[in-house]
Design the sequence.
């Protein structure tokens, strides 16, 4: 993992090594930059992807796995969960025929080429709390 | 709807309540922040989605509706339309098998969990004007 | 192509003319803004799209072409390649039934309506270098 920060370190590009776990690599970038609240963008390609769909009935993630794919889109954020910086990232990936698959980035996404961008929100970070009726921790909405 | 603004209010995270209309909730965030020109990112999930494809022949939107989906990606902007702040948002959503559907966010997208990010463009906002040959109001390109 | 820059020109909206090549138009915006390192977001629609999947075995792009589509998502960056500013852009596009196709934006994407956003990274730009084992030039990751 290598950072390409702005002069004031309020934003940074990030490059991951081939084979690195996507979320692990981005977690290290967030820690090195000392971010607690930030927005995140990712493009590139993955050797394999694991994407989740949160089933609201069962309150659990269904998972889809892929082989080598383009990261057609990656959007996410950094906020606090249980007192620590936490990355929430959603991906759209696409295969050789372009067909697109989307979902919540799970552990097990392995970098081929990853170009990410982090920008801090210079203010109090949102804190994730349990949402009544689901197993999710989200930002309070009221 | 709850704002998580930066100290200088130039950017903000936004969390919507379950069941809120996506565009209505984001409109209220834009109004409360006083934004006229901004960029927008959204991830999360929707109880249902309504996505449009602008048919250039018929000059009207074709609409696709879904059940519960992940917001795999949401990208948009705020600019002026008929003198008022206007949100233009495109979404990619994905279902239990990950299959991705994209388009223009229409009224009728209902929040399950919505985590949005708005950042102002500190300058004159683009103003939407009618584009000859279509029913769309877009930013003049020359 | 028309720019809608912020007062300090650190960010800008961009509108492309109907029929303009997407990458050519964005290249002109990057040149006019004098950007060397920036993040990029795009929404709108294309008269036709050409999207690539980098096949890691053959070390070449497979290409998918489409007719008129929505740009459901466009995410990218600007950095240095062979000493010059270079745009790397990934797209998710969707047709009349919403079905989404993703990949690397190639020459031959023709604008219908394009609303882009560029924000500079005020710091040393990443420089693309050949990645051993592929035909790609990427940001060194260590």
Sequence:
């Amino acid at each position: 993992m290598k950072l390409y920060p702005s002069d004031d370190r309020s934003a940074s590009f990030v490059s991951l090594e081939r084979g690195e776990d996507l979320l692990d690599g981005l977690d290290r970038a967030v820690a090195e930059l000392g971010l607690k609240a930030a927005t995140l963008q990712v493009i590139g390609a993955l050797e394999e992807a694991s994407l989740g769909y949160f089933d609201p009935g069962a309150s659990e993630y269904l998972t889809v796995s892929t082989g080598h794919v383009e990261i057609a889109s990656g959007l996410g954020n950094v906020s606090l969960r249980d007192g620590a910086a936490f990355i929430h990232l959603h991906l759209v990936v696409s295969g050789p025929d372009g067909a697109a698959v989307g979902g919540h980035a799970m552990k097990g996404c392995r970098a081929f080429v990853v170009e990410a961008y982090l920008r801090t929100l210079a203010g109090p970070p949102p804190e994730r709390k349990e949402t009544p009726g689901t197993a999710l921790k989200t930002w309070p909405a009221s």
About this structure: The two ends of chain B are 37 Å apart (CA to CA). The mean pLDDT of chain B is 97. Residues 20 and 111 of chain B are 5 Å apart (CA to CA). Chain B has one helix and ten strands.
